[in-house]
Amino acid sequence: MEVKEVKPPSGYGKPPWVFRGSALYQLHLVKAETARAFVPKEFKLVEAFGYTLGGFFLASYDDSPVGIFDEAVGLPSQAARFSKRITAIPRQSESKANGFLGMIGVGTAFNKPMNCLDIQVTEVKGPVATDICTISVGTAALAKAVPEPNLNKLTGPVINMSLPSFSGRTEYNPHLLKYSCQIECRIRAVHPAKVSGLPVKPKNDTEQSPEQQSSNFVDSMTRELGENERNLSISVMLSKPILALEFNCLKMQVGAPIIVFPCSKNTSRSC
Fold it and tell me: Per CATH, which fold does 4-94+106-261 belong to?
């Protein structure tokens, strides 16, 4: 394995880069055949009974080297717009919402949210904007609504952890890059966010000239390649959640990237 440091991009300051805010980390059971599309061939996929672990990381940064922004980590990376709307969650009786869990002693395992944050994720490529999915987060911290009494007491214990992060293998950077990531935050288990995809638009069956058909075929092939990557990402987010963790008072330090596997000049983008 070859490891080589990469010169940090200009304009972001010197590493480590520090990000502060809050985040939701959600772990899912993902079909192995779906996950393989995202795993470089140099790595072996850990799976059992046709499934592996995946998920997504939804973050809202109040401070970072590039200012305030949101991100949803799902491959492949693309610039996106996040439209947010906060709604109140109707109160339910204890017997209806938590009766059985209370009987077996785990009814208070999750903190009940007071508000719901609906996030519409829209992919932006130049002048073209495409709605991707909607993420409904039922957590008070990410929703940033009216502060609840004693909210700081409900944000969980302080933890420190180190996680590797990978990127690259794109038309802009063909190498596989690895980043060191140090995280300090308060953590608590929460109800999983609900992810909803978008309905498939019906095809247009109107008659077209051969020139129009040829042009539309090229456009369709280009669009389908992008849509295939997008649909694979959405399928991961739509898979079955098994654990959701909320990170409050998040401080994340990201080190300079290193090249783990260089991409040969003779190989394609998907090498």
Answer: Acetoacetate decarboxylase-like (2.40.400)
